[in-house]
Amino acid sequence: MIQKLISRIRETGAPVVVGLDPNMKFIPPMLFDDAKQSLERSENTDPFGDDELSVAAEAVWRFNKEIIDSVYDLVPAVKPQIAMYEQFGIAGMKTFWRTVRYCKEKGLIVIGDVKRGDIGSTSEAYARAHLGRVKIGNHDVPAFNEDFATVNPYLGSDGVKPFIDVCKEYDKGIFVLVKTSNPSSGEFQDVLTKDGRPVYELVADIVNEWGADSMDGDYSNVGAVAGATYPEQGRILRKLMPHAYILVPGYGAQGGKAEDLVNFFNEDGLGAIVNSSRGIIAAYTTEKYRKYGQERFAEAARAATRDMIEDIRGALNKS
Question: Which end of the chain is more exposed for a tag (fewer CB within 10 A), N or C?
């Protein structure tokens, strides 16, 4: 699967992933009105869903679809964050599923930002739900069917190896949390081990070991997550995991700058893909793109995506 992602990065010339993390405050009111009217006209009611939750989930779907239509030809991948859908219950999970399916129809690689990680059969169930298939009678049936998923390694190998096994079975990939972009990540990830190294370096070493058994060309289907907000750690992690693709959150709204990203890439110009979520999907709310207004929110997202791509290209060309 990592080779499919690399091929799309080369085709687009954009090591960029758009995060589909639809917060309620980003959704223009007109989409709620349209969703409510549409559901009122529909004869298909959801017996499991509250009306307001169903309206919100439908508005999110309409928002996502316009964003996807505006950027699918510019970027290789998208990253829907499952919590932003779970908050709407069953209706929200249907929107997550519809979003994944539609993105794949548009030729996009889908990174499910699910941050799963448990042990034994539970971890395997998560892996099959998001990356593989579940056996029902004589049939193997896909559920959400993303291409990659984010995985939390802090329960140890028991929580990760079931994902790796499913990835091998279905040619999928994972991104393992190593050094995350949030401000408090250091409370655990920066703690020094008995040999004086921070925990995130230990995790990186283990990710490198897991990845060696999942190679697909020069890179592994076992990648890592490392935040753009920690560029010096990125330099270290790039050396510790030479064959791991690094998913880099934290660009833009979280403070990461293009020049900070160079450390995460290899000399071949590959090795990393940079995420922006609200910096793109909520671009119309910022001063720079305010001219587009609410009704042209998708055009603002496209403009912000173009600007991000050029910003990253410029930084990489200087390095």
Answer: C
Report phi then psi at 245, rounded to 5. Answer: -75, 135
The whole-model pTM stands at 0.94
pLDDT(44) > 60: no
* Per-residue pLDDT reduced to its tens digit, 213-244: 999 999 999 999 999 888 899 999 999 999 99
Catalytic residue numbers, as ranges: 115
pLDDT at 48 over 50: no
From the list 58, 63, 74, 79, the residue with the least C-alpha distance to 25 is: 63
Is residue 49 scored above 60 in pLDDT?
no
Domain layout of the chain by residue ranges: 2-16+82-87+112-318
148-151 and 173-179 strand pairing? parallel
Among 19, 222, 9, CA closest to 103: 19
Domain 2-16+82-87+112-318: CATH superfamily, name plus number: Aldolase class I (3.20.20.70)
By the 8 A CB rule, do 264 and 275 touch? no
Q: How far apart are CA 297 and CA 126, in angstroms?
A: 34
